[in-house]
Amino acid sequence: MQIKQLKKLLHEHREVQVNIISHASSHFYLIQIRWQDEVDLLTGWREQPKVYRSLDQASAELKLLGIKQAHLVHSVPQDEIIGRPAHYSTATHCMPVSL
Fold this sequence. Notes:
Blueprint: H1 3-12, E1 17-23, E2 29-35, E3 38-41, H2 55-64, E4 69-75, H3 78-81, E5 94-98
Parallel strand pairs: 1-4
Antiparallel strand pairs: 1-2, 2-3, 4-5
């Protein structure tokens, strides 16, 4: 989902959840958009996921869009390594962030 599509979605619907995803062994962040049953990443003009080098950079992008609340999701690969599905919805992996 590109920025212009996200702006339109935010304008038309209030129940959009925005997550900032961080990975345990990385200093890179992705922005995930959840709406109804759809999950998508914020992408650039080449339809590749936009990668941010800091939490501040990702937060600044969301502030420009008028988003005031997001969730920081910390993905930990341990579950995936041993063959279990990854669970990111627990309180230890997801916390609200005010922008």
